[in-house]
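Lab notebook, bench 4. The sequencing result for the construct came back, and we need a structural model before the next group meeting so we can plan mutations. Quick request posted to the team channel:

Model the 3D structure of this chain.
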Amino acid sequence: MRVAAIIAEYNPFHNGHAYQIDKIKESLAPDFILSVMSGNFVERGEPAIIDKFFRAKTALENGVDLVIELAPRHALLSAEGFATSAVSLIKNTGVATHLCFSVEFGDINLLFRAKALVDGVDGEIVRAAQKRGLSYPNALFSAISDGEDEARALIAEKNAILGIEYLRAIEKLEANLDPFLVQRMGVLHDAETPSGAFASASYIRNGLLENNNILNYIPNSSFPKIGLAQFSDFSDMIMYRLLNMSRDELLRYRDVSEGLENIIFDTLNSARDVSTLLSSVKSKRYTMARLKRIILRALLFLEYSVDDYSPSYIRVLAVSAHGLSLLPLLLSSAHIPVIIRADDILKLSGRAIEDYKKNELCDKIYALKTGSGAGIRNIRKD
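Done. Here's the predicted structure in token form:
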């Protein structure tokens, strides 16, 4: 049996995602497609624009058979942590055979050659470059002086970096997953203009928030009929949380180091809102995505943990009629507990129940601003 796994956020689901699924079906012919999808908070350090249940339902309506959640503890990480957590979750299903992802080119061998260059980099050199103000991809690129030019050039691209981290995670975790590459179509990551039927997720999000017509770029089922969420909606909550924290408390959160806590606190008292705070702290050294992840983790009480990269349970968000036949195999093969219905929560213990409670709190905080995205839902989509 062939089960293709996709790591995605579907924030929101758009034509590029539909194209990826179609190509996987056409080229790989899997028996099932499984998606690991970020929950109500996503890797770029923001609330998902539409709640996780709506996005999971849309994925089913466009060819995915089973959607499982990557909780905020794991989704709100930089590329390495995000990739490692997601691959760990896929490995622990015990059913996936392939990991499918998209980058701007279609040569998996080239990506492996780029990975080899990254594997050979001295981490201290990368960290020193980041201290000088370079982003992680650019710091990696600057640390690699030799190597094939084409492979080296990939390292400065966000999607390629994520693809490389997927390959590294497969190797590190000894996951029995065959990588399958789909060439990205239409537009580059975060492109500001559409191309044909394709537009970037950021362009579509802006269009939704500004009431622009984006229907050419998303399936009809992806258009939200409920309230949208954006980072600024949580401004007051974030400011209240930060103002009630000490510098030492802020140090408990991942990626707060080298005096960043002092910069945040020195700026906090004069900032009128979270946007002002972020704009004042942001620099080449401290990217906006990193800062947003830090303060969202603080808002959600997601303190640093050595277990941040290793999910402790599998939460099924949605399953298609076809995917129902995969559930018995998932239940018998999974290496960690599986949550399908409310009764399954009662069977959790140890770290799994603590992690679930943390995720439940994240969902409740999200729901305070959106009115949706919390609780256990009927996961079946006929």
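The radius of gyration is 20 Å.
Will bring this to the meeting.
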